[in-house]
Amino acid sequence: MNAFLNAIYEDQEILDLVIGEPLNSVASYLPALLTAVNACLVLSVTDCDGVILFATDRFCELSGFDKDDLTGRRHNIVSSGTSSESFYRDMWDTVLSGKRWTGEICNRAKDGSLYWVDTTILPFTDTHGKITRFVAICNDVTNKKQAEQQLNQSRQRLKSLLLMSGDWYWEQDTQFRFTLLSDGFKKTGKDPAAFLGQTSWDAQCAQDEALWHKHRATLQSQQPFRDFEFLVTSDQNTGLPVWFSLSGEPTYDERGQFMGYQGVGRDISTRFSDQAQLWKLSNLDSLTGLPNRSRFETTLDRCVESGKASGEPFALVMIDIDNLKVVNDSMSFLAGDELLKIMARRLSCSVRQTDFISRLSGDEFAVILLDLGTVKDIHRLIETLRCTLEAPTDNAEQGRCTLSLGASLFPAHASASADLIKNANIALHRAKSNGGGQCVLFESEHKHRVDRRATVLRAIEQAISVDRLMLYYQPVVNPVTRAVVSFEALLRWNHPKNGIISPGEFQEVFENRALTARIGKFVTDMAIKQAALWSRERVDFHKIAINVTTADFVLGGFPIWLADRLMHYGVDPAQICVEVTEGMFLGPSAELVLSGLQIVHDMGAEIAFDDFGTGYASLMHLKMPIDRLKIERTFVTNIENDKTNAAIIEAIVQLGRRLGKGITVEGVETQAQADILLAIGCSQFQGYLYSKPLPAHQVASFIASYSGSKTTASQLSA
């Protein structure tokens, strides 16, 4: 302590600066001050050679040495040896020149542990200006240094994880220019050097002023951001767009001064590519490239709303190829598909840029004609369109192609999309019933279709009451394992005169929602009842698929009815599959349907998306509780000759697997088709190659013969 007192007394100027008063005025309380210093400050006094003359109690406490251990020893007794020779050389050069030195030093305690001190060394001189001793005042910063080390270790682990994940770490300066891009960035195929020194908006290629203005405002306000996505450039090798996603947080130094940003980046090009592919599948007809039904309905709704606002009329024209079935039957489905492509090209060349064309399904097209004149002009325009489409094709074997066209006008015939479609279809059916090859504009006296519809409705209601509706079951099989996977329940009408009739021949019934809901309840009850019967008889059917409609949910209370029937017959929900179509997710009942499907899914029943791939499905629908995608038969019919269809099916299979969904292929009719589908990776098939729909009493024998037979699938179906 005497050495410390001598150092203080010999430097009156320093004391005056520290205490703020002349020494003689504070002599009375100096001992108390020194006691506090001894207890609280990590302080030591050494001579010019670094020999310790004095150390405070706090110094001893931190280092673990007693004063007797320290006094007379060189100060390097607490040296950890972790600092370089140049570090100490610079320190000694500074203090020996009479200057104050400040820095952080890592010391070693008596027990071997390391501790960090933020140190200030003050040289003291005698009256002749000669340095006589040094006073070192320290602040324990061990916790801070350990926190920094842990932070650095965490950052290093993060960088390692990012490198393994394909993401990358980045840093920006105060001007938001990239100063660091980790090695993971190289996986994008881009040169990091090309981005260093640039801002993110310098690097992007498609300027969106609103988007970037908002992003710059976020950066300038020093706010964190998440998943900021932007288009960088197009890949020179593939021509595909390259998309980046950035997430970042502002960084500050120890004084709280803004230093820039740091964060992670990700190449999300694959996601956008997948979305683009799904968008095409969802919005465009795969065969013709025309907009599909979903796009058509959206566009028609938009035209109706625009027409209501502007008062401008437009026409909806429904087009049907009269002899497509003949071409398919006499030549092949490949020839029929080629005819559809020709019609699509002719339609595209015949209409104006303001008009809209779509392939709805099969041989049905739709055209929305805008900017119309008089009704006479409309007749002439539609007739010209028909003649253009009916021009002979290069393939003479296809014969002369005739088309039927039916049109309805907005607002003359209807002011709602559904009514416009209905009236155009009424006119189309009138054209076809008149022999085809003609155009019919809807007229209010077209009652024949309404009359037939009423007749069929009455007949079906009677059939329900006298139990003339029944279910047939078409198997879904795995030809590799020769296992029967499930059965689809298909409605049939046992007509007293015409025998077994499929729903296609009484389609008008399903335009009546109330009757559709009644039929839906019947189908659900019969299918579950049959499942219970087969279970008791130990028929290994696995699962029964039930087709449902919007009416089942809106009017039939399907989830409640399904749960009631399952409990009534004692059937496990896992033995039931509910098949839905795209149309159920359109219109005002979409939310009700979706919530009902979620309930059904939560029960444990499987949900299948029927007719997937025809262009009716959309990205939003794939996010719904769907377990299985059923690929529509149109992709299968000519798969032997059309590599595009095979590629589309393969893409759907891959996308389905990515989304964790099962895949079933419908309409498999030949062994060649099955072989191609197996090579693609499909394993569950449904179609006439394996079996037509069967009455319930034939199911057990089919399972036994199929699962136990060693014959080929072709022999079995024969």
Automatic annotation (TrEMBL):
The record lists the membrane-crossing segments as none
Outline the extent of the PAC domain.
Answer: 99-153, 226-280
> Which Pfam families does UniProt cross-reference here?
EAL, GGDEF, PAS_9
Boundaries of each EAL domain copy? 453-707
Question: In what residue span(s) does the PAS domain sit?
Answer: 45-73
Keyword annotations: Plasmid
In terms of CDD domains, this protein maps to:
EAL, GGDEF, PAS
Give start and end of each GGDEF domain: 312-444
Q: What is this protein called?
A: Diguanylate cyclase/phosphodiesterase (GGDEF & EAL domains) with PAS/PAC sensor(S)
Write down the species.
Albidiferax ferrireducens (strain ATCC BAA-621 / DSM 15236 / T118)
Taxonomic lineage: Bacteria, Pseudomonadati, Pseudomonadota, Betaproteobacteria, Burkholderiales
